[in-house]
Amino acid sequence: MNKNPIVDEYLEKINHPLTEEIQLVREIILSTDKDIEETIKWNSPTFMYKGNMASYFMNAKKHVSLMFHKGALINDKTGLLKGDGKEARTAKFENIEDIKKRKKDLQLVVKEYMKLQNQK
Can you point out the beta strands (E) in the chain? Predict the structure, then answer.
């Protein structure tokens, strides 16, 4: 798992009310594939694989909001991604139980994103 110490430090500093939930989503994404990396971009933890995959919307305080930058292009058969923007789609998680319940869906979306990037 490619945990970046810069992201650890960022999450410790901001003291977000959903840090435990954010960490669980983070672990699920990073454990999906060893080639997924993370950094801080746009003042937010961002996951990368051959480009910017997804970033947290850190202003959300009642749920974990994760924006997939090219979500409209991802073949999401799970229904996890929501929105109708030109490119981005969002995955929202209400609590730990919701994250655990949607773990496989999140991993499938991440894998579909990776497939898309590998076709380039």
Answer: 37-41, 44-48, 52-56, 64-68, 89-93
Pair 39, 9: CB distance under 8 Å: no
Question: CA of 23: how far to CAs of 3, 55, 71, 83, 120, in Å?
Answer: 11, 13, 21, 24, 30
Give how many domains the chain has, as a whole number.
1
pTM of the model: 0.94
Cβ proximity of 37 and 47 under 8 Å: yes
Residue 56's domain comprises: 5-118
Q: In this structure, what CATH number is given to the domain that contains residue 35? A: 3.90.1150
**Residue matched to tokens 């319940």:** 101
Q: What whole-number distance in Å separates Cα of residue 31 and Cα of residue 28?
A: 5
Taking only the tens place, the pLDDT of each residue in 66-107 is: 999 999 999 999 999 999 989 999 999 999 999 999 999 999
Average pLDDT score over residue span 20-36: 97
